[in-house]
Specification:
homodimer; TIM Barrel; 2 domains
Chain lengths: 378, 378
């Protein structure tokens, strides 16, 4: 472990599956696991300010170092007294390394890249990958920027989240074995340099490694072996885990037993409602996804009966909450009829209200999962 | 007076000017005057839900009948139990007649029409004006709709705001004396029919007349004479009052003494910070404007020192509230640095936070005006 404040406590290990209930202790409080992590790229969930968000008890927020480095800049966040102070959030925050965005902006995201069969969408944003790091162009003003393990960790330290993530390369799904291997080796050297940079000036922050190896099981196993022996505080699962849900779960079933059980793990960027029931028995502790907030902004509301499309005509006269037993701000105060009216009238207030409901739904669902594990049902 | 719940009480009449402090009693509580009325076209301020808005104590909200008739429809609002229930607002609401939108969509708004010198922007939306009313096309689906004094008042009764406004025609600024006269006569027949329709089924709702006459003082005077003898509960000042602020104030100085002092008056659609100090001494009781909310969405914040442009580079490191003595939700919780970051990062949360501040500023400013009148300063 790289610091003393960060601690992972396993409350209960299922005997039926790898599912477990845990508590991640951080400088800004506890994260009950398994749990959903909302994406607040620029230091806020889309359309939901952090004080109103605090009524939901979303225990961990995922912020993007790449975005924060470009706007407002890591120095400004540091000057503000760190990210929590800057954005007025009292609860834990995790930042990524920035690597994901650099590469996903180049390839247009994992899903897009898979669809495009490897054709680069915006190749010019990544100018060069060297042993040192990656040179890319800022989407904001075209400036040439160098991102390395050292600059990423230094930026993450200025930002000051509770959990940081090592700098890694995101190799595309469509890649030759040879190129994957070269990327794999470099990524693990970059992660080691990330850890070394962190340990030079240790702080209250924790640092997660990122498990790589693409869709090659031998490489994934080797990645776990390389990283579990280093002083990382936890493990994120990154890179392309598969081109569809089946491939992803086959890989996760293979990878999860290779990870040490006494450290928390995080699945990067997956959190759709179909995947969660399969992730929990695998022992995934936390996972981030912008799906619940993005769905909300498109008028897709989460309910125990499945997705509810707000713009369906029948909703116009449903003078009742989205869900009768939901205790969220939106359900306590507004009816489906009014929410569907706001959507149809293109009123921005709907973005906030729908987002609150979906994030609250995720929090509630994860609480039920934790209870089910404790009861021995999973 | 058309009903018993509605009452206007003059708390203090200045001896220095026509300024007065009053209280409008409505079924949903008191409106202290003079006061600013925020525009919630579709039953919400833009980007601010009504529960969060309720922390600001904005005592009167202006909703647009035209928009509510088209979406979700007056029947749906009635089914919901009326507008307060539908949108979850406990405090008073005023609706206009729908006439303004029909004509302003045709002419593209008063300001646009003045600039365009009378060229119709979207002439096809108003299909025909007859003695009966106006036939127009719905912007939503192209349906032909007939709006008359009777249908407007019936819709406003279904909507159920505390204060309704008579159906009138909005003649363009550029109009011949002859056409203005014809419009003037018809408007006053329409207003009489509005009142008659209201009195057929009187309710807790109040009904304001609209003073017309364009920029012709003799007509304005005649309008006051025609309308003050009828059982209206208050008076709105409508139509083109002038092509600029000077012309408007010259006209208002002329019109205000023609209105009965024992009934409340409302200035339609004017509320920029430069106009308010001139409006108050004239005895204007309420005025609605979308300026404070629109300015907020463009990153223009109101302060006692004048407008503050959020995207000015200096704000990036101002780790302090917009105004130190402001008690609004935004100033209590966030710094200028963070707000300017949200704006630059195009985060929708800024729309909500900036709106809260500007509306709170207006409420605070109007409270200070009332105090100044009571002290004898205005």
């Amino acid at each position: 472990m790289t610091n003393k404040t960060f601690k992972f406590e396993i409350v209960y290990q299922s005997t039926k599956s790898r599912a477990r209930v845990g508590r991640i202790h951080t400088p800004h409080g506890i994260i009950d696991t398994p749990n959903f992590v909302g994406v607040g790229t620029n230091g806020t969930l889309k359309a939901l300010d952090n004080v109103l968000l605090s009524t939901i008890d979303m225990q961990l927020m995922f912020c993007n170092t790449y975005h924060l480095m470009i706007q407002p800049g890591a120095d400004v966040v540091e000057q503000a007294g760190g990210i929590h102070q800057f954005i007025n959030r009292k609860q834990p925050i995790i930042t990524d390394s920035g690597g994901f965005q650099v590469f996903s902006l180049a390839y247009g995201g994992v899903a897009d890249e898979i669809k495009s069969k490897g054709t680069k969408k915006n190749a010019s944003s990544v100018l060069k990958i060297t042993e040192e790091g990656v040179i890319f162009r800022s989407y904001k003003d075209g400036t040439r920027l160098l991102l390395t393990p050292e600059t990423s960790i230094r930026a993450q330290k200025k930002i000051g989240a509770d959990i940081m993530i090592s700098f890694d390369e995101l190799p595309p799904y469509h890649i030759t074995t040879d190129k994957l291997r070269r990327s794999f080796d470099r990524t693990h050297r970059w992660e080691k340099r990330s850890l070394d940079t962190h340990l030079l000036h240790p702080s209250d922050q924790a640092l997660y490694a990122v498990i790589h190896g693409g869709i090659d099981k031998a490489l994934r196993k080797q990645s776990c072996a390389i990283l579990r022996d280093q002083a990382f505080d936890g493990f994120a699962i990154g890179g392309s885990v598969g081109k569809n849900r089946e491939e992803m779960f086959e890989m996760l079933e293979f990878v999860m037993p290779e990870l040490p059980t006494d450290k928390p793990n995080h699945l990067l960027g997956i959190g759709d409602l179909e995947s969660v029931p399969k992730m929990v028995p695998l022992g995934i502790d936390t996972f981030d996804s912008s799906h619940p907030t993005k769905a909300a902004r498109h008028g897709l509301l989460f309910t125990k009966q499945g997705h509810l499309r707000l713009n369906k005509s029948g909703n116009s006269t449903r003078f009742e909450p989205i869900e009768h037993d939901c205790t969220c701000y939106t359900c306590k105060h507004y009816t489906l009829a009014y929410l569907s009216h706001l959507l149809k009238a293109h009123e921005p207030a709907i973005l906030t209200l729908a987002t609150i409901h979906n994030v609250h739904f995720m929090m509630d669902m994860m609480r039920l999962y934790r209870e089910a594990i404790l009861r021995g049902d999973i």
